[in-house]
Amino acid sequence: MHVPILQVDAFTAEPFTGNPAAVCLLPSPRDAEWMQRVAGEMNLSETAFLIRRGDAFDLRWFTPATEVDLCGHATLASAHALWELGELPRGAMAEFHTKSGRLTATQEDGWIELDFPATPPSPAELPDGLAEAIGVRPHYVGKSRFDYLLEVGDERTVRELKPDLARLATLPVRGVIVTSRASSEGCDFVSRFFAPAAGVDEDPVTGSAHCCLGPYWRDRLGRTTFVARQVSPRGGTLRIRIDGDRVKMQGQAVTVLRGELCV
Hints:
By secondary structure, the chain is of the alpha+beta class. 20% of the residues lie in helices and 42% in strands. It has an 18-stranded mixed sheet that branches.
């Protein structure tokens, strides 16, 4: 059996930037162990697995180490792949059934808009060892449904972080978002995301993190629309709009590889 698989760079319009995701279109269900082994083989921050269910698709996401409950860039990559392969007509809404409920993606002026649940942070105590592992002491600590959120003083601090990833992997956290207001032109806030315990040392551009960042910066800045930049070495740009308990995030995507799994 030959299963179509694509590698898509998400939250970018330029190949070899943004966040790469593998997208695998399955003709029938496969067990989680098999999907985890494929994700390990792909060795990207996420591999997405799609199975058609009527006009919608079941969607699951796996890092090289574990299954996750919410992933933005691999959802954006999945929608892009479905339109590109003709599995959905151009302009049609992509609908996904996931562990985080129903998610959708639509096309808008060359961008893809995802409709995701907001995961706002609540103030939290700084876990022992986290400041030392990240290498900076934050002036705000919060925790969302999935991750810790740390705000630091400026964009330069975010860009120059060199966390102790081995130490961070031993702490009881899935991931750590580090953010600040932007000082560079063209964006409102910047961030980086580290999740070595989940098999991803640094995620290049993290859609699910912006489900937390969007509500946080709404409350900090008193606005509901933003341009965000994740300042990892690959980097990527998102447009964010808060709509009640939903986060609408827009990004672009480009396919860099098409192939088949021989299974």
